[in-house]
Amino acid sequence: MKVLHIPCRSLSNPIPVLEECYGILEAYPSIGLVTTAQHLHQLGEVKDYLESKGKRVEVGGQILGCRQDAALKLDVDCILYMGSGRFHPLGVALKTEKQVYMLNPLSGVLDAITDEEKGRWLGKRKAAVKRAMESKSFGVMVSTKGGQYSLDRALELSGKLRSKGKEAFIFAGDEITPNNMLPFNVDCLVNTACPRIVGDDYHRPVLNPDDLQVFLKYL
Q1: Residue 56: is it exposed, middle or buried by C-beta count within 10 angstroms (0-12/13-18/19+)?
Q2: CB–CB of 81/36 below 8 Å?
Q3: What is the DSSP code string of the chain?
Q4: Cross-strand bridge partners of residue 207
Q5: Are 84 and 12 in contact (CB under 8 A)?
Q6: Do the beta carbons of residue 78 and residue 57 sit within 8 Å?
Q7: End of a domain among 74, 89, 113?
Q8: What pLDDT does 197 receive?
Q9: Do residues 154 and 170 touch, judged by C-beta distance below 8 A?
Q10: Domain total for the chain?
Q11: Model confidence over 173-208: pLDDT tens digits?
Q12: Which of 76, 83, 183, 208 is most solvent-facing, going by the fewest CB within 10 Å?
């Protein structure tokens, strides 16, 4: 099936939010900028505004829910994510271990990703690893969607599981959903697609690749 990708650019102006909430960022000498595709065209004006306030600014660029590479390369005191929703900036905060702020031009809010939010997410991941400890069979899920397809990673992870004496199967499809996984009789699922998937109820433990690395250390 042919797929047509159409860029959708945000028309919301981020500068009024920055002007109103700038005090939150004032203590940081250097700031890194990341965003999603909808706001990429606005990074330049945000950079110019912050530099006019004497900040050293590094532009990381676009991040995805499953990839924060653009944030990992930033050598800064804090990171400013521009966009809506907290999932993307939470991922950046967990990966970089830096203070992350979220600038939402739609709601007009600039606030921080808190230690409490990070703690809740990490607590859920630790609980999933604990639930998986008795698992003998694993299904490694692969999404065939563009930007999420990670067959090489799935093969790597399934190989590591087999080396520890576990059964491992690869399940690939366009839609990774709890209903689609119901027919497969495995004890635990491993997700190589969007990390957000682990928040759904699959009626068994679901591990992201980072969770699986922790799991394997205990075997």
Answers
A1: middle
A2: no
A3: -------------SHHHHHHHGGGTTT-SEEEEEE-GGGGGGHHHHHHHHHHTT-EEEEEEE-BTTB-HHHHT--SSEEEEESSSSHHHHHHHHHH-SEEEEEETTTTEEEEPPHHHHHHHHHHHHHHHHHHTT--EEEEEEE-STTT--HHHHHHHHHHHHHTT-EEEEEEES---HHHHTT---SEEEE-S-GGGGGS--SS-EE-HHHHHHHHHT-
A4: 190
A5: no
A6: no
A7: 113
A8: 86
A9: yes
A10: 2
A11: 988 999 999 999 999 999 998 888 888 899 999 999
A12: 183
Tell me the β-bridge partners of 40: none
CA–CA distance, 148 with 212 (Å, rounded to integer): 18
Q: Which domain holds residue 132?
A: 128-217
* Same domain? 20 vs 104: yes
pLDDT-based confidence at residue 47 (cuts at 50, 70, 90): very high
Is 139 in the same domain as 191? yes
Say whether both 160 and 71 belong to one domain: no
Which CATH number is 150's domain given? 3.40.50.11860
pTM of the entire predicted model: 0.85
Mean pLDDT of 132-145: 94
- Measured CA to CA in angstroms, residue 33 lies from 30, 39, 143 at distances of 10, 11, 29
In terms of domains, do 140 and 194 share one? yes
